[in-house]
Amino acid sequence: xxxxxxKNKRGQVRFRGGSHDWLLAAGIAGNCPHFVxxxxxxxxxxxxxxxxxxxxxxxxxxxxxxxxxx
Amino acid sequence: MKIYVGIDDTDSIEQGATGETAxxxxxxxxxxxxxxxxxxTRHQLLLHPDIAYTSHNSSMCFTAxxxxxxxxxxIEAAAGCLERxxxxxxxxxLCVAAEEQLRDVESLIAYGYETKKRIITKGxxxxxxxxxxxxxxxHGGAGIGVIGALAGVGLRMTNNDGRFQxxxxxxxxxxxxxxxxxxxxxxxxxxQSVDGYxxxxxxxxxxxxxxxxxxxxxxxxxxxxxxxxxxxWKTCTNAHLEHY
Lengths: 70, 244
Ligand code: SF4
Prior knowledge:
Structural class of chain A: alpha+beta
Bound molecules: iron/sulfur cluster
Distance between the termini of chain B: 28 Å
Structural class of chain B: alpha+beta
Number of helices of chain A: 1
Helix content of chain A: 10-25%
CATH class of the largest domain in chain B: Alpha Beta
Number of strands of chain B: 12
Strand order of the largest sheet of chain A: 1-2-4-3
Shape of chain B: globular
CATH topology of the largest domain in chain B: Alpha-Beta Plaits
Largest sheet of chain B: 6 strands, antiparallel
Largest sheet of chain A: 4 strands, antiparallel
Oligomer: heterodimer
Distance between the termini of chain A: 17 Å
Strand content of chain B: 25-35%
CATH architecture of the largest domain in chain B: 2-Layer Sandwich
Order of helices and strands of chain A: EEHEE
C-alpha cells in the first residue's frame, strides 16, 4: 500500500499514517534524501530521523501532514 | 514595567526558526541592559490548510522587566532584528504589550484562544491591538505574522499555554531523581502528572531523553506520567506534549 495519499488540490501528498505512526514515519525518513531535522521546538517523534521531525512536513491539521518535497 | 514580546512568521520552509529570532531579540535587550527577559514559550495556533504558515503555525513569546524609557528603543531594535534576520519570503510580525498600559487583558486572552479555533484576519488583529493599546507591526512579506504575534502574547497571558523553548539538562537519561533535586535546579517550578497531580518533594522521577517544560498555572512545569501499578514517574515525551 502506498504510504502517501494522492495529491490534494495544491498538488501535495498527505502522509497515510496520521500523526502517530512512528514506525512508518521513521522508515520513510530513513530512506529520504530530503530529510532535514526541524527546529528542536517542533519535534514530535523520539527517534530523530522521522518525517514527524522533518522540516519539510507541513501539518495541515492535528492529525496529518503533507510532504513539501514530494 | 513588565512587557510581553510576541513574534511570529520569521522562518521559511528552507531556513530560519522563530525561536532563534526571539533569542536574538532577548540577547539585544540584555546586552543593552534594557532589562531581564524570562522564559521563551512556543504557542500552538490553528493548523489548517488555508492558513499560510510555514509548517506548524506556532508563535513565540517572552516577558521582560524593563524601565519605561527603554520601551520605544526596544520596539525599534526588535523590529530591526525581524527585518534583518527573518528568512526571505517570511511574513514577520511583532507584538509588544506593556502590562500596565494594556486596556483589556480578557479580550487579548480570548483572542489568543480564538486563534486556535478559527482563521483570523490581519485586520482583526490590528483592530484589537488598537483597542487594547499594544504595539503590533509587520516587518516584511505579507506581514501576516502579526496575527500570531498578538496571539502569542494573549496565550502567554493565560499562564496555561505553551511549551518552554529548549530542552532541560538535569542528569543523564534513565537517571532517577527526586522532586526536591529537580526543583533545586531552578529550571523547574513544579513537577506535575498529566492528570494534574502535583508531585510532593520526596517522590521520584525517571528522566527521559528530551526534557521539556510547559507553562501551567503560571509555573514552569515538568510533566510526568506513570503506568498503572508502577512506582516511579517518568518524564513525558514530545508526543505527550504535542497539545501543550
Ligand atoms: S517529510 Fe518528506 S522530505 Fe521529510 S523525510 Fe518525510 S518524505 Fe522526506
